[in-house]
Amino acid sequence: MTHSLASLSIGGLEIGFPVVQAALSGYSDLAMRVIARRLGASYTLCEVVLDRTILQGGKASRRFLHISDEEHPVGGQLMGSDPDEFGPAAKELAAAGFDVVDINFGCPVKKVLGRCRGGFLLSQPEIALEIVSRVREAVPPERPVTVKMRRGIDDTPRSRDQFYTIFDGAFARGVAAITVHGRTVRQRYVGRSRWSFLREVKQHAGDRTVLGSGDLFTPQDCLEMLSQTRVDGVTVARGAIGNPWIFGQVRALAAGLPPPDPPSVHQQREVLREHYRLAAGIFPDDVCGRQMRKFGIKYSRLHPQPLVVRDAFIAVHRGADWDAVLDRWYSEDHPGRHPTLDDVDETDCVRSGSRPAKAVPRGVFG
Known about the structure:
Layout: E1 8-10, E2 13-16, E3 19-21, H1 30-38, E4 44-45, E5 49-50, H2 51-56, H3 58-64, E6 74-79, H4 83-96, E7 100-105, H5 110-113, H6 125-138, E8 145-150, H7 157-172, E9 177-181, H8 195-205, E10 209-213, H9 219-229, E11 233-236, H10 246-254, H11 265-280, H12 285-299, H13 306-314, H14 319-329
Parallel strand pairs: 3-11, 4-6, 5-6, 6-7, 7-8, 8-9, 9-10, 10-11
Antiparallel strand pairs: 1-2
Helix pairs in contact: 1-11, 4-6, 6-7, 9-10, 11-12, 11-14, 12-13
């Protein structure tokens, strides 16, 4: 069955296929973004960065601002608490070449909320909208500004009113699109993402651009969200970590082709090798090994022997260790496997160090 999907635009920026990669703290660096683009993502977002980190400059700032020529269009995402710092930081993102500047009002992690950042700002409409104004004023008018939100702090009437105050106010201040995650901040990643709320928001928004987020782990999930909610696009977050093939797979399904097979072991090996090569251009060898270890753990879910391969990646410290895993476990070609919900770790925003909650089964969204 062919799915007729409208092309996604953000402001005057043509994105194309309406399934994109979300910002993922600790993950969506240049290497992950480039791999995702090569395998079918029409648009990617850099991992969230604090406005203060950008303004302080130095090595950390340069890493976040590193963009490849082949990944446009690409968005940069800012998080913070002080409206005075958002504008100058947004200007730096635009100057670095990001095609979109995104504002994070959605992160639910405790240490972020405790510093009045991320999802906390959904309880502070005046401050949130002042941040939007500062960013929109600082960024060139042709450069779209977008916002990431959750459906509220909680499910109280007050929280719902605050959500719509920020949602409508952000569009009134010139935001080009808003991404809405179907869970509340208090909910974090426990329980289902409420897709019925996304449908309600899109009906409220009319022709304003809304993207949906939450519980997108398979190509079919992406098409179902688009169909059920009528949002203009969807952002794949945890479902893309270690499975960049999801973007090409959903394109195939949308075109009416048979469900694609998971990548074979040799196909995985080539992507794993290239992902490490790209990361090695950003990080020194010892740091790169630690950074890529967590990716290897995610990639292992697609291997026909996921548990032993996961354990092998856990032991990675440097590039030589990564190559040894590929030589040992990826030398013979075999069919791969599709990751299951039981494989999914509850990691999306900033890692808090708390134990992940078990992923919930898919079912009725509401």
